[in-house]
Amino acid sequence: MSKPLCLLIDDEPDILELLVMTLEPMGITCYCAKNFTEAKKHLNSRRFNLCLTDMRLPDGNGLDIIDIIAKKYPFTPIAMITAHGDMETAIKAMKAGAFDFISKPFKDLKELRNLVSSALKLPENSVEYKVNLIGKSAVMKSVRNKIKKLARTQTPVHITGESGTGKEIVAKMIHNNGVRIKKPFIAVNCGAIPQELMESEFFGHKKGSFTGANVDKIGLFQTASGGTLFLDEVADLPLSMQVKLLRAIQEKTIRPVGATREIPIDVRILSATNYDLARLVKLGKFRQDLFYRINVIELYIPPLRKRIEDIPDLVEHFLKKFASNRKIYVLPETMRVLTKHFFSGNVRELENILERAVALCENNEITVDDLQLPNNNITQLNNLNKDEFLDPLLNEIERETIFNTLKQVNNNKTKAAQLLGMKIGAFRYRLSKYEK
């Protein structure tokens, strides 16, 4: 088996020498270029398995290198070498398509070796990715294609979309199709951790560091080592924790509570929220620097009402899941009602509705009554073009859906959230918009 080839581009001889001394013992053949012109000559003469390039070159920049390789060798990963602390450059590189970045001077050669090893695990050509998102709609085809591209990078991805659209499922697919698949995927609901325990939960603690710390504890970053840390409901993080999280992501190190030394970390960060983070930044409730760091690439998951044509396929999927060995049918009128329902809780709400309907139906046929929808009258959206939804109308529909559901369950917010397929935090947030 031939050795992998790596193109190293940097105008500092000492950096090139250190890179060669690190990579050659790994069985990698290195070609060096000290400027953009030399790099182009190497790229025109052979195909490389990996490229490490500095951003600033005497006669060009690393973004031009990314552009050339992306066009000529789209499956060759590129890692950007940036000045220490220059996150703006790193973010530009990852937005342009870099696999990952590393800062110089190199603090830890193990980090460099890990980056190179991960990049070389990527397939060298197109492969069949396992993106099992249900739906033939154009918007879902677009989401699947983006997942395939994002799986080939280490870029932080921020997944947006309403509650119940499947953001955590999408995060798992990005992880499961990438080079970290054999390492942990750790999902954490940021809104479910008590504020006083957040630092310990994320970074761990040493025995005796505070009252109740009877043993050493490993935090979420270390638990996810080598894999992916998925920060769900990231908007719920208090500002004090946002500062510490930002530092951990930028420095790629953590310090457990009570520890005197920092620990290197190797995790990919994915995050999600159904809030408008940009709006929270303007309101001063979310740090702008953390927003830019986790929102390098944004992946939007559309609500169910924007992909009505996928509802029959989703219904079939959930019936197989809940019906066991029974063959259950959805009557045409029932399907018609489902396709006109607003679905405040999106796919999760549809799943809950069908689970209940399967339990209630008789003669293996699901009727409209079996759906037990809060109020069918407010969901008749057939007169609206799906691309012409107006916010005021949708808000009114959502408002009526929420209050009708609350009435149905005697104002029990937890039950109402479950009925609508929403997390309680998201339900309370939406309810607060209409309780004025």
Q: Overview of this structure, please?
A:
Mean pLDDT is 89; it is low at 376-390. Helix 2 packs parallel to helix 3 (62-72) and helix 18 (413-419) packs across helix 19 (424-434). The relative contact order is 0.08. This protein has 19 helices and 16 strands. The strands form five sheets. It has a five-stranded parallel sheet with strand order 2-1-3-6-7, with helices on both faces. Strands 9-10-13-8-14 form a five-stranded parallel sheet. A two-stranded antiparallel ribbon has the order 4-5. Helix content is 43%, strand content 14%. The chain has 436 residues and is an alpha/beta fold. It has three domains: 5-120, Rossmann fold (3-Layer(aba) Sandwich); 138-300, Rossmann fold (3-Layer(aba) Sandwich); 304-434, Helicase, Ruva Protein, domain 3 (Orthogonal Bundle). Strand 4 and strand 5 (60-61) form a beta hairpin. The termini are far apart.
CATH architecture level-2 label of the largest domain: 3-Layer(aba) Sandwich
The low-confidence parts are 376-390
Overall number of domains: 3
Radius of gyration: 25 Å
What's the total helix number? 19
Note the main sheet. 5 strands, parallel
Shape: globular
**CATH class annotation of the largest domain:** Alpha Beta
Total beta-strand segments: 16
CATH topology of the largest domain: Rossmann fold
The helix content, as a percent range, equals: 40-55%
Q: What is the overall pLDDT average?
A: 89
The CATH homologous superfamily name of the largest domain equals: P-loop containing nucleotide triphosphate hydrolases
Q: N- to C-terminal separation?
A: 69 Å
Question: What is the beta-strand fraction?
Answer: 5-15%
Please list the strands of the largest sheet in the order they lie side by side: 2-1-3-6-7
Q: Which class best fits the helix and strand makeup?
A: alpha/beta
